[in-house]
Design goal:
Elements (H helix, E strand, L loop, with lengths): L4 E6 L3 H12 L1 H8 L3 E7 L15 E2 L3 H5 L6 E4 L6 H12 L3 E4 L2 H18 L3 E2 L10 H8 L5 E7 L2 H13 L3 H10 L8 H4 L2 H15 L9 E2 L7 H9 L2 E12 L2 E12 L11 E8 L3 E8 L3 H17 L18 E2 L7 E8 L4 H11 L4 E6 L6 E8 L4 H12 L9 E4 L4
Parallel strand pairs: 1-2, 1-4, 2-3, 4-5, 5-6, 8-10, 10-13
Antiparallel strand pairs: 7-9, 7-11, 9-10, 11-12, 14-16, 14-17, 15-16
The structure holds L-homoserine.
Length: 428
C-alpha cells in the first residue's frame, strides 16, 4: 500500500473538529483523490477532557503543540489554534525546522510573520499552505496562485469578514442600530474572542494583506494598511445609503499604483445592485481583476466548521499529491518589499450632514463644498424635525484631501448640528 500522509492537528475548536470529521468520514474519497491514504497520527488542544462530539481515542495526544509538530509520525503539521504569536508561531517554526509541511488557517500569524515563515519553509524544503486563512471555504489562494497565475493582477477586493457583513446586512434588513445587532452577533457566537478583530477590520485586513502579497508579488505588509472598522456605522447611514441606491460593506481593496501598494480595509458604499451590494449575511466575496481574465467573482462561506475545514483539506490533499506551489504563488524570498501608500485616487463620496434648519444653511454648505473643489452630484433633504435638517449628498469624484478640507470648512460654518459623516463610494 502507498505510504499514508500523516497529520498532526493542533487546535480542536470548530475548524479542527471539522478536519477530523472529514478525514475520518471521507477516507475512501480522500485516498482516491490523493493517491494515498490520509491519516491523523496525533492531536493537541488546551483541554484533553472536553467532549468535542467526535471520537479522538484513535489518535495520540500531545499537550504541547511543539511536541506534536515535531513527532516522527507526523508528515504535515496542521495548525488551527490561531494567534499571531505564542504557541502557534513556536509550533509552526518547530514543524518547519523538523522538516514537516505546514497547513494553517492562521491569518494573524501570516499577516505578521508570513515573510519569515515562508522563507524558513522554503529554506527547509517544506511547504507552508494557508488556503483556510483567507475567506474560509472560498478557494481564493488556489485561484490566485494557480488558475489566475498567468495574469497581471490589477486589483483585488472583497468582503472577507462574515461577522461584519452579518452585522451590516442585519442592520439594514431589521432597521436596527449597531449596538443591538452587535449584541445579537455576540449571542449567536459569531464574534471572535476579541471582537475588535472582527468589527475593527483587523481580521479582514490580515486576509487582504495576504491576498495583496500574492497578487502583486510583494512582501506581506499589514502594518501599512489603511484600516477602519464598522463600529461608527450608524443606522441612519445604512438607511440613507439605501435611499441613494447603495449598501454599506466593510470592503477591502488592494491595488498597485506608481507610488506604491494601496491597501485599505474600510466601510464603503457599493451599488445595491452589484454582486458586492447583494452579498447577504456571513457570506464572503472576493473580486479579482487581471489583465487577461477581466474580472472574476468568488462567493461563498467565509467561516464555520465545514467551509474552513474544506479549505484545510484542499491544502492537505495537494501535499499528499506531492504538488509543489511556491508559498505566495512565487517563493517568499523573491517577494519585493513595498511601500504602503494612502489611496489618493479620486472617488465619489457619500456625505451625511445634520444642518440647523435655518435660512441660508444649505447655501453655506454648497459654498464650502464648491470652494474645496467638491462637486455635488446628488442631494437629498429628508425627515427634518423642528430644529435640524438631515441632508445627504453624493459627490462627484474628489480626492480625500479635498473632502477633508470641505469637512473642516463645514464644521466652521456654524450651521452644523452634528459632525459630518463621509464614506467613500467604491466603483465595483
Ligand atoms: N471572524 C471571522 C469572520 C472568521 O467573521 O469572517 C474567519 O476569519
Amino acid at each position: 500500500m502507498t505510504h499514508p500522509l500523516r497529520l498532526g492537528i493542533a487546535g480542536l475548536g470548530t475548524v479542527g473538529i471539522g478536519v477530523v470529521k472529514i478525514v475520518t468520514q471521507h477516507g475512501k474519497l480522500l485516498e482516491a483523490r490523493t493517491g494515498r491514504p490520509i491519516e491523523i497520527s496525533a492531536v493537541s488542544a488546551r483541554s484533553r477532557s472536553q467532549d468535542r462530539g467526535v471520537d479522538l481515542s484513535g489518535f495520540a495526544w500531545e499537550d504541547d503543540p511543539v511536541a506534536l509538530a515535531t513527532r516522527d509520525d507526523v508528515d504535515v503539521y496542521v495548525e488551527l489554534m490561531g494567534g499571531s504569536d505564542g504557541p502557534a508561531k513556536a509550533s509552526v517554526e518547530a514543524a518547519v525546522a523538523a522538516g514537516k509541511h505546514v497547513v494553517t488557517a492562521n491569518k494573524a500569524l501570516l499577516a505578521h510573520h508570513g515573510q519569515e515563515l515562508g522563507e524558513a519553509a522554503e529554506a527547509a524544503g517544506v511547504m507552508l499552505r494557508f488556503e483556510a486563512a483567507v475567506a474560509g471555504g472560498i478557494p481564493i489562494i488556489k485561484s490566485l496562485t494557480e488558475g489566475l497565475a498567468g495574469n497581471e493582477i490589477t486589483r483585488v477586493m472583497g468582503v472577507m469578514n462574515g461577522t461584519c457583513n452579518y452585522i451590516l446586512t442585519r442592520m439594514y434588513d431589521a432597521d436596527l442600530p449597531y449596538d443591538v445587532v452587535f449584541e445579537e452577533a455576540n449571542q449567536l457566537g459569531y464574534l471572535e474572542a476579541d471582537p475588535t478583530l472582527d468589527v475593527g477590520g483587523i481580521d479582514a485586513g490580515h486576509k487582504l494583506a495576504l491576498l495583496a502579497s500574492i497578487a502583486f508579488g510583494t512582501q506581506v505588509n499589514f502594518d501599512a494598511m489603511e484600516l477602519e472598522g464598522i463600529e461608527r456605522i450608524q443606522i441612519e447611514d445604512i438607511e440613507q445609503a439605501a435611499e441613494m441606491g447603495y449598501r454599506i460593506k466593510l470592503l477591502g481593496v488592494a491595488q498597485m499604483t506608481g507610488r506604491g501598494l494601496e491597501q485599505r480595509m474600510s466601510p464603503c458604499l457599493v451599488p445595491a445592485t452589484s454582486p458586492l451590494g447583494q452579498l447577504e449575511g456571513g457570506t464572503n466575496m472576493v473580486v479579482v481583476e487581471g489583465d487577461s481574465i477581466g474580472q472574476v467573482v468568488l462567493r461563498g462561506p467565509g467561516a464555520g466548521e465545514g467551509p474552513t475545514a474544506s479549505a484545510v483539506m484542499g491544502d492537505v490533499i495537494d501535499l499528499g499529491r506531492g504538488l509543489s506551489i511556491p508559498t505566495y504563488g512565487q517563493p517568499a524570498n523573491t517577494l519585493r518589499p513595498v511601500r504602503g501608500v494612502k489611496a489618493t485616487k479620486p472617488a465619489p463620496y457619500y456625505l451625511r450632514l445634520s444642518l440647523q434648519d435655518k435660512p441660508g444653511a444649505l447655501a453655506k454648505v454648497a459654498a464650502v463644498l464648491g470652494e474645496a473643489g467638491v462637486s455635488i452630484n446628488r442631494m437629498r433633504q429628508h425627515g427634518h424635525d423642528d430644529k435640524t435638517a438631515p441632508v445627504t449628498i453624493v459627490s462627484h469624484k474628489t480626492t480625500r484631501d479635498n473632502l477633508d478640507v470641505a469637512i473642516a470648512g463645514l464644521e466652521a460654518t456654524g450651521v452644523m448640528a452634528g459632525h459630518p459623516v463621509a464614506i467613500r463610494i467604491e466603483e465595483v
